[in-house]
Structure formats: C-alpha cells, structure tokens
Write a structure and sequence with these properties.
Helix content of chain B: over 70%
Largest sheet of chain A: 6 strands, mixed
CATH topology of the largest domain in chain A: Rossmann fold
Strand content of chain A: 15-25%
CATH superfamily of chain B: MetI-like
CATH class of the largest domain in chain A: Alpha Beta
CATH architecture of the largest domain in chain A: 3-Layer(aba) Sandwich
Shape of chain B: globular
CATH architecture of chain B: Orthogonal Bundle
Largest interface: A-B, 29 and 23 residues
CATH class of chain B: Mainly Alpha
Distance between the termini of chain A: 47 Å
Radius of gyration of chain A: 19 Å
Oligomer: heterodimer
Order of helices and strands of chain B: HHHHHHHHHH
Strand content of chain B: under 5%
Number of helices of chain B: 10
Number of strands of chain A: 10
Number of domains of chain A: 2
Distance between the termini of chain B: 15 Å
C-alpha cells in the first residue's frame, strides 16, 4: 500500500496537504483491482518528469515576416502531476504539446523528460490530439493495440492489454466496432485507451473534450480523474476552458496571447473529486478568468484588426 | 432484381436492334455481321482454346505490368509529395507526361528492349504508372495530416509508418486513381499487342482483321470490354465498398 502512495508524490509543495488524503484514498480504494504497470518515478525527487527550458518557437507567415509563437516557456511538471495549460486560442498551447510530443521542433530551448533531451517522438509521451486521429481503417481493439504493435509486442500480450485498457474506459463490448460507429464521447475514450495502452509516462491531452456536450464532458472528467488515480501517469492537459482546468488540474498554467509566455501559474489546492458547480471552483476560476480575459481581448483585437488570423504553422489549429 | 431486369431489357433491345440492322442488309454481312455469327466466332474461339490462351497471356502481362506500376507509382507518388521542390518540378513534368498516349512509348520500347515481352510490359507500365503516381501524390495531400502525426506519436516510423498508416489512410483517396491506372494498363496492353505478334487478345483481334473475319473482330472486342468490366466490378467496386464500410462513408448507390 505504501508503495502505491509513493507513486503519487505531492504535486504542489505545501498547501496541497489538504487534498492529499483524498487522492490516496482514491488510489487505495481501487488498488485491489489494479494490475497496471506504473511508471517508475524513483529517478530523483529533484528531477522533474517534464521540464521545458526557454522554449522559443518562431515561424515565417505567408506574408514572409517572422512570427514569434512561443517565447521562453519555462515549465516543470512532477511525476504523477496533473498540469493544465489554459490560454486564448492562438497562444500556441497546442503547439507546445506537439513540441513535447516531439512531433515538431522548437526554434530554441529544450524539452527534457526525466532530465533527458527529447529528440523526436517517443512512446514515453503520448499525445491525444484534439481531433483524436483514431484510425478509421482499424477496429477499436486494433486502434488500442496499434502502439504495442509498432513496439513489436506479441499478439497475445497485445490483445490482453487492449482488453484491459478497453475495460478501463468501459468500452469492452466495442472491441470489434469501427470508430465511426461510436459516439463522440466513446471515441474520446478509445483515444484515451489507445494512448494509455502504449504505457507512456506522460500523457499529453490537447483540448480533448472541447467538442463534447456538457454531460459527456462531466462524465469523462470523472473517468479521466479515476484513470489518473489508477495509473499514476503524469498528465499535461491543454484547454481553453478555465473551469475544466480547475476541475482536473493540480496546477494551472496560464499562457499569454502571441507570443505565448507563461503569464502565471496557479496551484489548485481544492479537495478531489471537484465539482464544476462548486463555489470554490467558481471562485478559483474567477481569479484565472480575470487574467485570461486580458489575453482574450488582445487576441480579439488582433483578429479584428487583421481580419483574418495569421496562418499558424506547426501543429496548432489544424482542424481541416 | 429490378436492376437486373432493366439490364436484361436494355441488352435484349440492343441485340434486337443489331439483328434488325444486320437483317436489313444495308451493309454487306462481312462488314456488319449478325449477333449469332459473332456468338459462333466466340464459341469456336473458346472451343479451339485460342481465346483461352489469348486471355491468359494478356491477363498475365497486364497483372505483372500493373503490379509493377502500382508499387513504383506509390513510391514515386510519396516521393513527389515529400518536398516542395520535387513537387513543383517533377509534379509538373508528370502531369504533362500524362497527356502522352502510352503507345507513343512503343518505338522507344522497341529500340530499348527489342521485339519482346519486355517492350509490351514497358508500354503497359508507362501507361498506368503516371495515373497511379499522380493518384498517390494527390492522396497523400488529401489524406488528413492527423493520421501521420498520430502514427508517429504512437511510435511508428519509416516503413512501418508507410505500411500501417500512410498507405491505409490514403487508400480511399487513391482507389479511383488505382482504378484509372488499371484501365490505362489494360488499354495500353491491347494496343501494344496489336502491334506485335505475341499471342494475347490484341493479336487475336488483328488476326481477325487480317482474315477479314469481322465476326471474330467483334467477338474479341467484346472479350476485351468484358474483361475490363469484370475486373473493375469485382476488384475495384468491392474494394471501394469495403473501404466505405470501414470508414463509415455513405456508399454511393
């Protein structure tokens, strides 16, 4: 049991004590059922799981001028921590996830995982895209197995693990369905299972629930929190929804609008599970919203002045 | 059922009209044969095995040629789409080459390969390679970028990425190009066979001309059409239906 508890290091230093018991209780309650391989967090208490140092990204717009998208981003995420990143659209938060995933290359700065520099994609970090990117030519089960297949894991083990992760997201009966036969919320869960099945240390989520109705989103918040308890993954979750960030995050980082900088970080010390309608959530949300609003206003100003949004190059906003 | 009935009525009417025109004897019978003399030609052709052999020879050639151009075309298509420079230079060249009828490669093929199977294969490949290449290039462009990224993100790279992600993801976009490539391959083959005594349907067709046997000519034409149609219906239609089912696209009925 105590070993389990150690897998959930206190995400934010001191004031977090208040919500620690809830998390550990949550983990302990389920721990009898768990056979999930947990990521090894024993590197050092000092080495953060994910560390971004002075990340800058600039690119050339169609008109030929250079645009600074990300400006000296410094962030650290501890093993097992749930970090939410909020910001107005166009602040580069999706792009930041793509950089961590290794799908794009930053202009300068480094992404470090366990102190090691990221060079290209790796299955220690899996990104769940906003558009999910489920493969329509594969069944749900084959989608979940995909990452393991690429690693060269045998069929028997793959199937067993796929079954486990599909059960974790409550989609066992849909193993042989194709993704177009599922609802939006179910597809979202398939993407989650597919990402978890490669057993990454870090889960990167890019506005995963933005396109869902409120009820489904509430449900998925609960499920994600439960799965986070059960698997002990480190999660970096990008959203433009402040309440969602507070509902889920141990910490919320606010990015500014163009160039994207970390404006402020807010530790969220509320006990879990949190409810969106809770007064404390609303209160915390207001504080962040006030700061966010400035950025949104700036982004709107730019949009109205330009008429059109400048084309954002790598990764961000590719919703075609 | 209803569709089958309509088809039967249509073709019965067509044959009736043909019979009528032949019976009116506007043209001499050796220039405008009746349907049953064509039927007879088909019967004797199959009976003395000459049509079976011709079909087998032609199909073998077209399959080999088509397979080569599919593999080469996919590689070329991916290559062309891989960089802006290649796309602008090679891409334009490929499009302009497509306006060249494949039989124009025949003299060149003769000089390179001599009067041989390889010369025919070369023409077949040149006939279908370009449409497969252009289809693949286009498919790669149309294919949502997200699949490639998701594949890389899940640990696929190099050939794995091509085989397990890029190829299946682009299939719905290239299936019509593959179909067109097949049609071009088939046409190029028959044309090339007509110019070279080599067994095969094209040669049988020319033999009908040499013997002034119009019934045989029409019989072979019908065979060529039928084989093209059957392959299109059996292979490509079912492939399209399969893809539509898997991707959840509405089947076009």
């Amino acid at each position: 049991m105590s070993a389990n508890a150690q897998n959930f290091p206190a995400p934010v230093p001191v004031p977090v004590e208040s919500h620690m018991p809830a998390r550990i209780a949550g983990a302990r309650e389920k721990s009898g059922l768990i056979s999930v391989p947990r990521p090894f967090h024993g590197v050092s208490h000092e080495t953060p799981k994910v560390r971004l140092t002075d990340i800058c990204l600039s690119y050339r717009t169609h008109s030929g001028e250079r645009l600074l998208a990300l400006d000296h981003i410094n962030l650290q995420v501890k093993a097992g921590e749930f970090l939410c990143i909020v910001g107005p659209s166009g602040c580069g938060k999706s792009t930041l996830l793509h950089l961590i995933a290794g799908l794009h290359q930053q202009t300068s700065g480094e992404v470090l995982i366990d102190g090691k520099k990221v060079q290209g994609p790796g299955t220690d970090r899996i990104l769940i895209f906003q558009e999910l990117g489920l493969f329509p030519w594969l069944t749900v089960g084959q989608n979940v197995e995909f990452g393991m297949k690429m690693k060269g894991i045998g069929k028997v083990e793959r199937e067993e693990k796929a079954r486990y992760y599909l059960r974790l997201v409550h989609l066992s009966q849909f193993k042989d369905s194709y993704t177009h036969q599922l609802s939006g919320g179910m597809r979202q869960r398939v993407a989650l299972a597919r990402a978890l099945a490669t057993e990454p240390d870090v889960l990167l989520m890019d506005e995963p629930f933005a396109a869902l109705d409120a009820q489904t989103r509430d449900l998925l918040h609960d499920e994600l929190e439960r799965i986070w308890f059960e698997t002990g993954r480190t999660i970096i979750f990008v959203t433009h929804n402040v309440r969602e960030a507070i509902r889920l995050g141990d910490r919320v980082a606010l990015l500014t609008f163009r160039p994207g900088r970390v404006k402020r970080e807010f530790p969220i010390d509320l006990p879990r599970p949190r409810v969106l309608e809770d007064v404390h959530v609303a209160h915390a949300a207001r504080e962040i919203l006030d700061e966010l609003r400035e950025e949104i206003n700036r982004s709107l100003e730019v949009e109205y002045n330009l008429g059109v949004k400048p084309h954002v190059e790598p990764g961000a906003d590719q919703q075609s | 059922m209803k569709r089958a009935a309509r088809l039967v009525i249509f073709y019965a009417g067509l044959i009736a009209l043909w019979t009528l025109l032949a019976q009116l004897k506007i043209w001499p019978p050796y220039l405008f044969p009746t349907p049953w003399s064509v039927g007879e030609a088909l019967y004797t052709g199959f009976k003395d095995h000459s049509y079976w052999i011709a079909i087998a020879v032609s199909l073998r050639r077209v399959l080999v040629g088509y397979a080569v151009s599919v593999v080469l075309g996919m590689i070329l298509g991916l290559g062309v789409g891989s960089s802006k420079f290649v796309e602008e230079t090679m891409g334009g060249l490929l499009v302009s080459l497509q306006s060249l009828p494949s039989i124009c490669w025949w003299p060149l093929a003769l000089l390179w390969f001599g009067l041989s199977q390889n010369a025919i294969l070369f023409v077949v490949i040149m006939g279908s390679l370009l449409s497969v290449t252009l289809a693949m290039e286009d498919g790669r462009k149309q294919m949502p970028k997200i699949y490639g990224m998701a594949g890389r993100n899940l640990g696929a790279s190099g050939f794995q990425l091509f085989w397990h992600v890029l190829l299946p993801a682009s299939l719905p976009f290239i299936v019509s190009g593959l179909k067109q490539g097949w049609a071009f391959a088939w046409r190029s083959l028959i044309t090339a066979e007509m110019l070279y005594l080599s067994l095969g349907l094209g040669q049988v067709l020319m033999m009908g001309r040499d013997l002034n046997d119009m019934s045989a000519v029409i019989a072979v034409m019908i065979l060529i059409i039928a084989i093209g149609y059957v392959v299109d219906g059996l292979v490509f239609k079912s492939m399209e239906r399969h893809l539509q089912h898997r991707w959840g696209l509405t089947p076009s009925t």
